[in-house]
Structure formats: structure tokens, C-alpha cells
Write a structure and sequence with these properties.
There is one protein chain. This protein is mainly α. It has one domain: Amino acid/polyamine transporter I. Helices cover 78% and strands 0% of the residues. The protein has 19 helices and no strands. The radius of gyration is 22 Å and the shape is globular. About 6% of the residues have low confidence. One of its GO terms (cellular component) is plasma membrane. This is Divalent metal cation transporter MntH. One of its GO terms (molecular function) is cadmium ion transmembrane transporter activity. It is a multi-pass membrane protein. It is found in: Cell membrane; Membrane.
């Protein structure tokens, strides 16, 4: 029996009115095989939501409004890097049966493991900052709710999405995928309405920048795309997901997880690119003021593309904040349980991670500026998640037949080195 057929046994089979007779009953069931493959989809869609969180709205829209098509190449390169990173992360969980934080606890010295936990918690807080602020801005744009009460509403509403996990991982994943689908639809409509310049888009694929400010935005785009907290989450979603027996079946599941990553992050990458292209087409060089802020983008879309485009942007921003803050809270659980083997009540964790975002809203910091800077903080957390992933996935004693090929490890090391170099450059620029 093939692995898809074995997987399909976990789902109810459709009713058969007339049972096949004779040799025909030995033919493989194509619907059953399809259902078996669908079971493998889901973890990367949870990760993909974090790749289109409010931080992406801020960095991509700001990049398009300020620099036009200049940073298209950054969005594309960051998404390709994210695909490789999440593929390695999914494979790590499948091969070892453990999440990345658990592997760090098992294989790193205790002081280093504690330091890794501390920086991972800071990353989780920076993530929640972006997501809650983005959701609060969306509520203000849609309903006129002040930012501080809006942040409380978004932070509280995340409990409803998280509660779906008690009904099984498929329910949670499907809910997240539905929210992602609405976000995709909103930006697809806006992109078609805006009608970006295809030749200018192609020209934006040539790597170049325009000074330190564009480099800061490039780092923000990278931090908003290759999300360190999602590396931890994705590694926790794939262990023991599908029972397998033998290396052949593990490789089959690994192929299914790769497809999951390519589809989900391909969709997320398209949304990120659409954000930048809509802003570049509608605002760059237009003289419309304030289009490097979320509120300005909303107002600008209303003026250039119409009220429907502005409402679609705000709805997508709200759903993005709601879905991604749920994933961020889940990441906090994975981080603490993995690194420290400790659990704290969900209400306590939600409150602790929510407080920094509410403080930023209370003191009146510009929301878009706070979002962009939070993504830069996330970019500094990438190496601490990426280096262990690369180190573990190249070890045959941990990965077995799913160990990295030398070329895969080389590309992953190159990506890690580029991220570290970019962060060092930004730190030097900020200090100078």
C-alpha cells in the first residue's frame, strides 16, 4: 500500500454506490491518493501568515512609496531565502521528531541554550509588537476605534483563533489558511486595479540600493520575510505529523512538506510583491503626502484606486494582525517549552507579550515607524535561529537519509553569512 493510500485511511472515504468487481478493485485510488497528499499540507500555511504580517505591510508599502520599484529584488530574494529556510525547518522536525528549541536544549551547552531562549523571547515580543499595532491601525481605519483600545481588541481576539487548536491541528491550519486567502484576494484585486509597470518591475530585479535609508528598509523587508519565530513554530508543526515506517516513506513525506512550503510561501511572496507594486504604482513620485505610513497608504488608495481598494487594504491588515498574532503567541509557547521545558498559562503569556505593544500605542509612537523598526529587530534574530537549523540539518546522525546535500548546506551558509553581514552593516550605520 502506498503512503498516500495509508494517509488517506485517516480521512473518511466517499460513499461508493457500486463496488468494483474483479481485477478493477486492485487499481490505485486516485481520490484517495489526493486526500493523502492534502494531509501533508498545512504547516507552511501557518508559517506563511507570519510572512504577510503587518510588518510586511509597513516595510513593503514604505519601500514602494519612497523608492518605487527599486527594492523589488529584495522582496524576491528574501522570499526565495525563506523557502529554503522553511524547507530545512520542516525537514528538521520530520527527521528528528523534535522542534528546533528542543534540539538546542539537547545539543547546546546550558548557558548558550539560556541565551538562545532569551533572544528568542525578545524576537517573539518584537513580532507581537508589529502584529498588534498593525491590527489596531486597521480597526482605527475601518471603524475609527482609538489605537490603544484597538490593540486590546486584537490581542484578545487572538484567543479565539488559538482556541481552534483544541479541536485539532487541521482546524487551526484551515482557519489560518482561510484568513490568508482573504488577504491574497484583497491584494490581488488592488494589484489588478493599480496596473503596475511590468518593465519597471523587471528592472527592479537588478540588485541595487539608494543609500543607508534604503538599506534599512531592505533589512526590514528581510526581517519581515525570513521570520525567526516562524522557524521555531514550523519545526514544531512537522514532528510526528504523519506516521511513517521506513526511509522511503519519510522521503515521500519530506517531498510533500516541500510542496507545502513552495505553495504557501509562493502565495505569501506574491502578496509581499503586490504590496510593494501597488505602493510604487500609486504613490511613488505622485506628491501624495504621508504614503510611507499605513494611514497614508489607506488614504492614498482611497484617492487613487477608490474606496473599495482602501477598505480591502484595511481588512487585509486587520486579518493579518489577527492571524499572525495567534501564530506569534503559539511561537512563544514553542520557545519556552523547547528551550526550558516549561509551560506558563496562555493568559499570562498573552498579557506579557501584549504589554510592549500597548505601551507603544499609549505613548503615541508613530505606528508605521514602530512596525519598520520591529522588523529590523527581527532581522537581528534571524542568525540565532538560522545557524542552528543549518548546523543540525547537515548532521547525518540526526537527519538520516534527509541530511542536507552539500550544495544545500552551502547555499544556506551563504544566506546566513549575508544576513549577518547586513546586520553588522546596519549596526555600524546606527552607531555612526
Amino acid at each position: 500500500m502506498t503512503l498516500p493510500d495509508r494517509l488517506a485511511r485517516r480521512l473518511p472515504a466517499p460513499p461508493v454506490r457500486h463496488a468494483p468487481r474483479g481485477p478493477a478493485r486492485d487499481l490505485p485510488s486516485r481520490p484517495a491518493a489526493t486526500r493523502g497528499r492534502l494531509i501533508l499540507l498545512g504547516p507552511a500555511f501557518v508559517a506563511a501568515v507570519a510572512y504577510v504580517d503587518p510588518g510586511n505591510f509597513a516595510t513593503n508599502s514604505t519601500a514602494g512609496a519612497r523608492y518605487g520599484y527599486l527594492l523589488v529584488w529584495v522582496v524576491v530574494a528574501a522570499n526565495l531565502a525563506a523557502m529554503l529556510v522553511q524547507t530545512l525547518t520542516a525537514k528538521l522536525g520530520l527527521a528528528t521528531g523534535r522542534s528546533l528549541p528542543e534540539l538546542c536544549r539537547d545539543h547546546l551547552p546550558r548557558p548558550l541554550n539560556r541565551a538562545m531562549w532569551a533572544q528568542a523571547e525578545l524576537v517573539a515580543m518584537a513580532t507581537d509588537l508589529a502584529e498588534v499595532i498593525g491590527g489596531a491601525v486597521a480597526l482605527h481605519l475601518l471603524f475609527g476605534i482609538p489605537l490603544l483600545p484597538g490593540g486590546v481588541i486584537v490581542g484578545t481576539a487572538a484567543f479565539a483563533v488559538l482556541a481552534l487548536r483544541s479541536r485539532g491541528f487541521r482546524t487551526f491550519e484551515i482557519a489560518i489558511a482561510v484568513l490568508l486567502g482573504v488577504i491574497v484576494l484583497a491584494f490581488a484585486v488592488n494589484l489588478v486595479t493599480a496596473g503596475p509597470d511590468l518593465s519597471a518591475t523587471a528592472g527592479g530585479l537588478l540588485p541595487r540600493t539608494a543609500g543607508t535609508d534604503s538599506m534599512l528598509l531592505a533589512a526590514g523587508i528581510l526581517g519581515a520575510t525570513v521570520m525567526p519565530h516562524v522557524i521555531y513554530v514550523h519545526s514544531a508543526l512537522t514532528p510526528n505529523r504523519i506516521p511513517t515506517s521506513g526511509e522511503a516513506q519519510r522521503r515521500t513525506v519530506a517531498r510533500g512538506l516541500r510542496i507545502d512550503v513552495l505553495v504557501a510561501l509562493g502565495i505569501a511572496g506574491g502578496v509581499n510583491l503586490a504590496m510593494l507594486l501597488v505602493a510604487a504604482t500609486s504613490f511613488h513620485g505622485s506628491g501624495i503626502p504621508g504614503t510611507d505610513t499605513l494611514e497614508g497608504v489607506h488614504a492614498g488608495l482611497a484617492g487613487t484606486l477608490g474606496a473599495t481598494a482602501a477598505v480591502g487594504f484595511a481588512v487585509a491588515l486587520l486579518l493579518s494582525g489577527l492571524a499572525s498574532t495567534s501564530v506569534g503567541t503559539y511561537a512563544g509557547e514553542v520557545i519556552m517549552q523547547g528551550f526550558l521545558r516549561r509551560r506558563i498559562p496562555l493568559l499570562v503569556r498573552r498579557t506579557v507579550t501584549l504589554l510592549p505593544a500597548l505601551a507603544v500605542l499609549a505613548i503615541g509612537v508613530d505606528p508605521t515607524r514602530a512596525l519598520v523598526l520591529s522588523q529590523v529587530v527581527l532581522s537581528f534574530g534571524i542568525p540565532f535561529a538560522l545557524i542552528p537549523v543549518v548546523a543540525f540539518t547537515r548532521r547525518r546522525d540526526l537527519m538520516g537519509s534527509l541530511v542536507n546535500r552539500p550544495a544545500t548546506t552551502a547555499v544556506a551558509v551563504l544566506i546566513t553569512a549575508l544576513v549577518v553581514a547586513l546586520n553588522a552593516f546596519l549596526l555600524w550605520q546606527l552607531v555612526a
